[in-house]
Amino acid sequence: MAERFRADALQAFARDVFASTGLDRERADTMAGVFLQADLMGFTTHGLNRVASNLGWLKSGESRKTGEPNMLADRGNCFNWDADFLPGPWVVTKAVEQALERVQEHGVVTATIRRSQHIACLAAYLPQIVERNCVGILTCSTPAENTVSPQGVKTPLFSANPIAFCAPAGQYPLLFDISMSVTAGGYVARAAREGKKLPAQYLKDSSGQLSDDPAAFQDGGSILPVGGADHGYKGAALSAMLEVLSMALSGYGRADDVQEDDEANSVFLQIIDPTAFGSENAFLRQTAALLQLWESCESDDGDPVRVPGKRAWGQRQSQLAEGVQLYPSVLADLKKVAEETGIPMPEAIG
């Protein structure tokens, strides 16, 4: 039986790891909480899996430990920050909190952030939004990254460009976090690490041939956009839209000299208060009905119908109560971090 760890103990461990670099403990705890939220909901490629890389950036100075984001524009209902390489999980959490404060007055608040250090799992920022009975939209792109090829070409152009969304809907929220690539780069890296092929031909090699071998991507290939080989023009169009929202609106993107910026992100965030448009009950009546109708659909194979948010929200609740079960490679990496820093791993609870 796989080991489980108390959620608060894992957060305290990650907090202490980040604080060991000289980062303020409150900021370190915010970062740790974001990574933990991802694992609680099952997004294991971008949760505590990212502790080691963030520790490295903090040690090397690639992540700025002190200071505040620079305000570039502010009209009350929208604002743009230059994070100047502050830790992504901390600065995005700060932006979400600021937007939630403002949304009571403005109804809809939109924010962009440029030059944020990598923000990890987008879904990890959604619980605090949905628990305030708001709708949230969050997307990011990576100006220095070219991993996803548009439809019909072999040249990688886009980054993975994930988008996350949440809306209150009764027993569990409608919630998802998806990339505009047919699979996320984290899953390609995990398959390569484990010596496995991908479930289907999600990649192109450097000559443009379809492949399920992670080595094809590592040797100069690319990931297909959403829609795959046949309908990838849809994913490419969505990728372009998300890069406009994140890169163009924030003012940091493809037009800039970004090759030394590694995984730094451009971010777009929008929070909507449903009560700005009508009653909360009227809103919940519609969202709950949608999810109930979706669940009641007849499945193709007899398995339960998968509604976005139900599994993640249920897993979050169960792991908070029963302990977090870490993906094997994530656990192995955290043990290495513990050895390197001298900060002991929390004890397993079962």
Automatic annotation (TrEMBL):
InterPro entries per the UniProt record, alphabetical: Mal/L-sulf/L-lact_DH-like_ah, Mal/L-sulf/L-lact_DH-like_NADP, Mal/L-sulfo/L-lacto_DH-like_sf, Malate/L-lactate_DH-like
UniProt keyword Iron present: no
Task: State one Pfam family annotation.
Answer: Ldh_2
Keyword Oxidoreductase assigned to the entry: answer is: yes
In terms of domain of life, where is this protein from? Answer: Bacteria
| Keyword tags | Oxidoreductase
Q: Which family does it belong to?
A: Belongs to the LDH2/MDH2 oxidoreductase family.
The protein's name in its UniProt record: Ldh family oxidoreductase
